[in-house]
Design a protein that fits this description.
By secondary structure, this protein is mainly α. Among the domains are: 38 residues, no CATH class; 69 residues. The protein is 75% helix and 0% strand. It contains 20 helices and no strands. α6 packs antiparallel against α7 and α17 runs antiparallel to α18. The protein is globular, with a radius of gyration of 27 Å. The relative contact order is 0.06.
C-alpha cells in the first residue's frame, strides 16, 4: 500500500477499535505488517526550500561581485576567477556527499548552487577569451554539463533547471524544426531520474514539482519542434500529448490523494477538455487545420522525417495507453482519453467547411459532461457533479454566444443552468447528510 494510504489507515484504526469493528490485536497486527511510515517532515521541506533560496541568493551575489570592476582586471586574473565559482560549487558538493549524503536539504541546495556556478563559469570564460557562440549554444552547453549533477546528487531542482534550459534552447530554433526536434532526445535524459523519484514516493513535493515542470516543458517544447512540416498537425499532436499525461496520471491505483498531488492527471484532463472545446469552433477547422502553426516547410524535405517520427511516436503511445485502459474497462478515464482518436477522425473528415468535426466535438462534450454528472450522482460526489455541470455550462454558453438567439432566451437558459447547479448541490448535500 502507498504511504499515503498507510497514513490514512493509521488515522482510522483507533476509531475502528473504539467502535468494535477491529480488535486491538488486529490493529497491532496491521501496524506490525505495514511498519512505521517515514515521511518528509515539515521541517525538512522548510530546510529544502530555504536552502535552495539561499543557494540562489549566494549564486546571484557571486555574479554581482564578479561583475564589479570586471573590465579592469587582467585577462589572466579574469581567467582564474572564471573557474573559482565552479571549483567552490564542486568542493561544496563533495563535502555534502561525504558528510551529509542523506540530507535532502543539503543535496538540493548544493546541487542548485553548483548548477548555477557552471553557467557562471561558462559565461565568464567565453567573455574573457572571446569564444564565439550565441545564446542557444551557451544554454545547451550549460544544460549538458549540469545533467550529471542530477544523478550524482539525486537532486530534483537541477533536473528542473535542465528541463527549463533545454526548452529555452528549443525556443531559439522555433522556426527550424530540424534543430528544435533535438529537444525530445535531450528531455529523455531526465526520465530515469523522474522514474526514480516516483519510486521513492509518488505524492511528495519533489515528484509533484518535477511532474508539473515536465508537463509544461513538454507542451512548450512540442510547440517549438513538432507539427511544422504537415498542415494542421497540432490538432492531433496536442490531444495525443495531453492524453499521455492523463493516462500516466491514472496508472497508479491509489485513490487517497487530492488533485494537486497528481498534476499529470489534473492538467491532462483540463488540457483535453480545453482542446475539445476549442475544436467546437468553426475558425479552428477553417484556418487552423490547413496551416501549420510555425514556418511552413516542404513536407518532402528530409528535414521533415524527425518531425514525423516523433509525432507518430506520441500518437502511437497515446493510442496504446487508450487501448490499455479500454481493456481495463475504465470507462471514466477512457471518456477523457478518447479525444485524440476523435481528433484523428475529425481531421480526416473535416472537408472544406469543417462542419462535421464541429458537430462531432459538440456531441462529444455534451455526452462527456452528462456522463460526468451521472457518475457524480452514482458516487455521491459533489466535485464530480460540479465538474460535469461546469463543462456543460461552458458548452452551452459558448454555443449561445456563437449563435443568433435573442438575449431573452439566452438569459433564461443561463438562469436555468445556474438553478441546475444549486439544485444539484443542495440535493446531493441532503443525500449525504450535509444539509438538514
Amino acid at each position: 500500500m502507498n504511504k499515503q494510504g498507510v497514513k490514512w489507515l493509521y488515522k482510522e484504526v483507533p476509531d475502528l477499535v473504539v467502535k468494535g469493528i477491529l480488535s486491538q490485536e488486529t490493529a497491532d497486527k496491521l501496524r506490525q505488517h505495514y511498519g512505521q511510515v517515514k515521511g518528509i517532515a515539515k521541517n525538512t521541506v522548510t530546510l529544502i526550500i530555504l536552502g535552495t533560496i539561499g543557494a540562489l541568493l549566494i549564486g546571484l551575489g557571486i555574479i554581482l561581485l564578479i561583475g564589479h570592476n570586471w573590465e579592469d582586471l587582467s585577462r589572466l586574473t579574469r581567467g582564474v576567477i572564471s573557474f573559482l565559482p565552479l571549483v567552490a560549487g564542486q568542493a561544496l558538493a563533495l563535502w555534502v556527499m561525504w558528510k551529509r549524503p542523506g540530507s535532502a536539504a543539503f543535496k538540493e541546495g548544493t546541487a542548485t548552487f553548483l548548477s548555477l556556478m557552471v553557467g557562471v563559469s561558462i559565461a565568464l570564460v567565453c567573455q574573457t577569451y572571446n569564444i564565439p557562440g550565441d545564446a542557444g549554444t551557451f544554454t545547451l552547453s550549460w544544460m549538458l554539463l549540469i545533467a550529471p549533477i542530477v544523478y550524482l546528487m539525486q537532486a530534483t531542482l537541477p533536473a528542473v533547471i535542465y528541463l527549463i534550459g533545454i526548452t529555452v534552447w528549443a525556443g531559439t530554433y522555433w522556426n527550424d524544426s530540424f534543430k528544435a526536434i533535438v529537444f525530445w532526445p535531450l528531455a529523455t535524459v531526465i526520465i530515469p531520474h523522474f522514474v526514480w523519484s516516483l519510486r521513492q514516493e509518488l505524492y511528495v513535493l519533489r515528484s509533484i514539482i518535477l511532474s508539473l515542470v515536465m508537463i509544461i516543458c513538454a507542451s512548450i517544447g512540442a510547440s517549438f519542434s513538432l507539427g511544422k512540416t504537415w498542415d494542421g498537425a497540432w490538432i492531433i499532436i496536442f490531444p495525443s500529448l495531453y492524453s499521455i499525461f492523463y493516462f500516466l496520471g491514472n496508472l497508479d491505483s491509489n485513490k487517497i490523494t487530492v488533485n494537486w498531488q497528481r498534476p499529470m492527471r489534473l492538467i491532462g484532463a483540463i488540457g483535453l477538455f480545453i482542446l475539445a472545446f476549442i475544436f467546437t469552433f468553426k475558425d479552428v477547422w477553417k484556418y487552423g487545420a490547413v496551416h501549420s502553426y510555425g514556418i511552413i516547410r516542404n513536407i518532402s524535405d528530409l528535414s521533415a522525417i524527425p518531425d514525423h517520427i516523433i509525432s507518430l511516436a506520441i500518437i502511437a503511445v497515446s493510442m496504446l495507453l487508450f487501448y490499455d485502459f479500454v481493456k481495463r474497462k475504465n470507462i471514466t478515464v477512457c471518456l477523457f482519453g478518447v479525444v485524440p482518436l476523435i481528433a484523428i477522425v475529425a481531421y480526416f473528415l473535416k472537408g472544406s467547411t469543417g462542419i462535421l468535426p464541429i458537430i462531432i466535438f459538440n456531441v462529444y462534450l455534451l455526452f462527456l459532461s452528462v456522463s460526468r454528472i451521472a457518475s457524480g450522482i452514482r458516487n455521491n460526489s459533489l466535485g464530480i457533479i460540479n465538474s460535469g455541470m461546469l463543462m456543460l455550462a461552458i458548452l452551452i454558453i459558448a454555443r449561445f454566444f456563437d449563435s443568433d438567439i435573442s438575449f431573452l432566451i439566452k438569459g433564461l437558459v443561463f438562469i436555468a443552468v445556474g438553478v441546475g447547479f444549486l439544485v444539484a448541490n443542495v440535493a446531493l448535500a441532503r443525500r449525504l447528510g450535509g444539509v438538514k
